[in-house]
Amino acid sequence: MKKVFNNADEAIAGIPDGAVLMLGGFGLCGIPENCIKALVKKGTGQLTCISNNAGVDDFGIGLMLRQKQVKKMIASYVGENAEFERQLLSGELEVELIPQGTLATRCMAAGYGMPAIFTPAGVGTEVGIGKEIRVFNNTAYLLELAFEADFALVKAWKGDEYGNLVYRETARNFNPVMAMAGKITIAEVEELLPSGSLDPDHIHTPGIYVHRIFQGTHYEKRIEQRTVRKLAD
Amino acid sequence: MLNKNQIAQRLAKELKDGYYVNLGIGIPTLVANYIPAGLNVVLQSENGLLGMGPFPFDGEEDPDLINAGKQTITTVPGSAFFDSAMSFGMIRAGKVDLTILGAMEVSEKGDIANWKIPGKMVKGMGGAMDLVASAKNIIVAMMHTNPKGESKLLPACMLPLTGVACVKKVVTELAVLDITAGGFKLLERAPGVTVEEIMAKTAGKLIIEGEIPEMIL
Prior knowledge:
The complex is a heterodimer.
Chain A: H1 8-11, E1 20-23, H2 33-42, E2 47-50, H3 61-66, E3 70-75, H4 82-89, E4 94-97, H5 100-111, E5 116-119, E6 133-136, E7 139-145, E8 149-160, E9 165-166, H6 175-181, E10 182-193, E11 212-215
Parallel strand pairs in A: 1-2, 1-8, 2-3, 3-4, 8-10, 10-11
Antiparallel strand pairs in A: 5-7, 6-7, 8-9
Chain B: H1 4-11, E1 20-23, H2 27-30, E2 42-45, E3 49-52, E4 75-81, H3 84-92, E5 98-101, E6 105-107, E7 112-113, H4 128-134, E8 138-141, E9 153-154, E10 169-171, E11 175-180, E12 183-189, H5 195-200, E13 206-207
Parallel strand pairs in B: 1-2, 1-5, 5-8, 6-9, 8-10, 12-13
Antiparallel strand pairs in B: 2-3, 3-4, 6-7, 10-11, 11-12
């Protein structure tokens, strides 16, 4: 069982053109920065990306959009990205918008080995068009399928040689459920530790879900909306 | 007529001790500034936090700690982090007591539209559809009319829906209204605003019973 890779380039080797990827993160918080940069360098194309957001023009998934590596984007919110908008309006990019909870739960279902879930989100809206509806206890629910992703790219705070992962603060977001959902899950961590270094009680993602792990470098951790209060407040 | 901060101040009166509350982007976010002293209210941010605190002081921003509007924030003592699936799990399971969000249109039946304007760039619904489909108590905070002066309280929404028959109450710069089986029931009017003005700016069915009191902020 060798899960540890030297760097992002080695860890993403084997992701082919046309692959379906999950990418963790909320906005620019907790995104797999190193994997994205490696994919941009390698130029892997025709990708389907499942991620809550699509980055900004010059960071995150936005870097892959700029190089036209993304064929289809599945997300819940895609504002703040001019290149994304241009590609969407010109028809170069296919986009599927789905409710955020549905996105998270379709990942969760995949990681829990369940083919589908029922959710009330989107009932009576255009999101529900063409989907099976079931009524339980007088409430209507949409049938939504578990995602199938070839690779999940996630970012954690700490990890060990077995692939056990610990996230930090709200950088956790979609990372644990996507880590569980990928056929092959690649985790990049700020700190890679020897086995036994992490308290088993504190592990968020057990290593069984993680196939490749590496310690990332040069984390930029860009802030999208820097908001502060003055000392007088 | 109320300004945005006063709308938030009026909304804060809907909070009760022990409430778990999700605040949407815009006016709802301002409600956090008016939580009455002594009231224990826990703010949920759907990106994975219970116990959201105020913005950090300059220089203390943490890129790993943001709210659902992607703004840097802090935590309060007793806070907890969790993943996105659990976040929407607690919303879906009805654990969040109150959701306050903005809207482009609300119908007299409680339908809400706030995510898409056909022909314009669509940014996505984010967590709004999940919230309105599951929360048991949904209050909309918005202006009574759009920039063109047209009513946003309608017989039926014209924009694509976010959720159906889910809004319980609407607070605007002019009025507080409950959504009832018969339509918008006028509960309070803003200081200096007449019932006639509210009638003129409400396109949906408006129910007026007896004297309508002025809001107390």
